[in-house]
Write a structure and sequence with these properties.
single chain, alpha/beta, Dna Topoisomerase Vi A Subunit, Chain: A, domain 2, four-stranded parallel sheet
């Protein structure tokens, strides 16, 4: 073997491992290089799990109940403060994913939580006309009555002592109109309606033609409007104070803007959220609907908005009570003639209710002595066949004879 060939052979043998390594580097040069595993960063869901109880306590306060978006407003700064970088948190993701997931995973912790979900439709019974909104408190009260069941024993309800009214006369002079569903449940829970003799009206989005008809045609009533501090909130207020293509007012309704306005945002320290505008500049629409230059700057140039949900429940009630008192909302006491008539009626009702006790005893004795017909079921079935629109108890009442009444 020539010396040159020997050198090449020896060098190839010695560098074989190094050559193999270099070929592997070339093959994998497009791949990411290996790095030691980094510590896992907390996700929004991880942080939400930690802060959710605190967020609920902040939102519900001593009132003990809150809307999901109120919890979102309490939770958002707590979550964002623990995230790296400029990030935001969607209210839809929080209220529809993070909050329900947390409640499902922590049933013991959240068992006492009272969340006010909006009405999302209505439920109506046949024949009775009983109708409820499919919201938290309405469903809760309905189910409680279902569980209690109807009284099957013979009983008589006394006549109520309430003075008969329909509409605002002798009953209320102010209507609180709020642009959202859900808060009505909170207001009723703390007695805003009864303590201030205040009717409460709510809507989702822009006021309908029916709502504006009610506002215009209820006589002697002031409407106190509670709205978000944003373009939609000003538009909702504007549709009550001026005619539009869809609705022409024949008279100016008595409208009071309770807020939220920029002064409330600053005084109450309410948190804003970012907003995006699409299409034409909203500034003109805001000015037409009563926004000040500073408010237009905040909403349009600042691209931010503030919802009623930015209030915690306690804070909202304190703020609203101060607004109602500033607006002159007081309890109703009618004129002297009405008071005298109501006093006499209360006296009449008291005596009637006393007589009902004796009447009830006699009627119970007579009713329990009646022998129902042996074919009662068949008779009810026949009556329902003749008129299927009846309920079973309507059909049964129609079977009573003069002998039954006289016995």
């Amino acid at each position: 073997m020539r010396i040159g060939d020997a050198i090449i052979q020896h060098a190839t043998t010695v560098t074989k491992a190094w050559t193999h390594y270099q070929k592997r580097v070339i093959r994998t040069s497009g791949r990411a290089s290996w790095r030691p595993p980094r510590a896992k960063k907390d996700t929004i869901k991880d942080i939400a799990r930690r802060i959710m109880p605190e967020a609920y306590r902040m939102a519900a306060g001593t009132v003990g109940m809150a809307a999901p978006r109120q919890i979102f407003y309490a939770a958002r700064p707590l979550i964002l403060a623990q995230l790296d970088g400029e990030k935001d948190l969607s209210s839809v993701y929080f209220t529809q994913v993070l909050l329900p997931d947390y409640m499902a995973a922590h049933p013991t912790t959240t068992a006492s939580w009272d969340l006010l979900w909006d009405d999302r439709g209505h439920f109506r019974e046949p024949h009775t006309g009983q109708e409820i909104g499919l919201g938290t408190l309405a469903v809760r009260r309905y189910l409680a009555k279902c569980r209690a069941g109807a009284a099957t024993e013979l009983a008589v309800d006394p006549i109520g002592t309430d003075y008969p009214t329909y509409g605002p006369e002798h009953r209320f002079r102010h209507v609180l109109l709020i642009e959202k569903e859900g808060f009505q449940q909170l207001f009723e829970h703390v007695g805003i309606d009864t303590r201030y003799d205040l009717a409460i009206m709510s809507s989702k989005g822009m006021n309908t033609t029916a709502a504006r008809t009610l506002v215009e045609q209820l006589p002697g009533v002031r409407f106190l409007v509670l709205h978000d501090f944003d373009k939609a909130g000003f538009s909702i207020l504007g549709t009550l104070t001026r005619s539009t293509r869809r609705y022409q007012f024949s008279r100016q309704a008595d409208i009071v803007d309770l807020g939220i306005r920029l002064g409330d945002v600053e005084t109450e320290g309410l948190a804003a959220e970012p907003v995006q505008y699409h299409g034409e500049d909203p500034g003109q629409n805001l000015r037409v609907n009563g926004a000040t230059p500073d408010e237009v700057e905040f909403l349009v140039d600042g691209r931010q908005r503030v919802e009623i949900n930015a209030f915690t429940s306690d804070h909202l009630i304190r703020w609203l009570e101060a607004k109602l008192e500033a607006a002159g909302v007081v309890k109703i006491i009618p004129d002297e003639d009405t008071l005298i008539a109501a006093y006499r009626r209360a006296c009449y009702v008291r005596r009637i209710n006393a007589e009902l006790v004796n009447c009830h005893a006699r009627a119970t004795e007579e009713a329990t002595s009646i022998r129902p017909p042996a074919d009662l079921r068949e008779a009810v079935e026949a009556a329902l066949t003749d008129d299927p629109s009846q309920s079973w108890d309507e059909a049964l009442a129609g079977l009573l004879t003069e002998d039954d009444d006289a016995s």
